[in-house]
Specification:
- This protein starts with a strand and ends with a helix.
- With 175 residues, the chain is mainly α.
- The chain has one domain (2-172).
- 69% of the residues lie in helices and 5% in strands.
- Strand 3 (123-124) and strand 4 (129-130) form a beta hairpin.
- The chain is globular, with a radius of gyration of 20 Å.
- The chain contains four helices and four strands.
- The protein has a two-stranded antiparallel ribbon.
- Helix 3 crosses helix 4.
- The longest helix has 42 residues, at 131-172.
Length: 175
């Protein structure tokens, strides 16, 4: 795989992993945001206006996914933990995802007034936040991790094949 004519291996794998996580998370969260928009007080407009209106929040959701990743990196002392999270990694994503969702929702609803729910949003009385945003941060980070893991494994296979090929070419091509 190339990036502007260069092998992608020129970039630090940790940075590449974070870029992949962010891009996949933004895409998945954008789809989720558009799907749940009817549970928010959002003016009836065209689909394009809804997508544009949901894009900025999906960037924030991508950042929240990176915060889960960075926190896990610090806790597990492994920058690749999200590629093979095991049970403790999924529990970690669940707990941090809920915590982030509650903080963001409480802030947006009651501090900044960035958005409001309508009657279609099921709210959790104890927390005072909607069920859909909580589910979003419970479901999407593990799905993002699984998708990135698949891409990552394919890239590692390609890079290891390229490396083996290059070694063979270097060894046998210099006769």
């Amino acid at each position: 795989m190339t990036l502007v004519g260069h092998k992608t291996e020129f970039m630090n794998p940790r940075i590449r992993l974070q870029i992949h996580l962010f891009l996949v998370a933004v895409l998945l969260n954008l789809i989720w945001e558009v799907a749940q928009i009817k549970a928010y007080d959002f003016p009836e407009t065209s689909l394009m206006a809804v997508v544009i209106g949901c894009f900025v929040p999906s960037l924030g959701d991508g950042l929240m996914t990176l915060i889960i990743f960075w926190t896990g990196w610090a806790v597990f002392r492994d920058s690749r933990w999200i590629l093979k999270p095991a049970v403790k990694g999924y529990v970690f994503m669940f707990v941090v995802g809920i915590l982030l969702a509650v903080i963001v929702e409480l802030n947006a609803l009651y501090v900044t007034g960035a958005w409001e729910y309508n009657e279609q949003m099921i709210t959790i009385p104890v927390l005072g936040v909607g069920l859909l945003p909580l589910l979003q941060m419970i479901v999407l980070p593990p799905v993002t991790a699984a998708l990135v893991q698949q891409v990552w494994e394919r890239l590692e296979t390609e890079n290891s094949s390229d490396t083996r090929y290059q070694k063979m070419k270097d060894q046998y091509g210099r006769r």
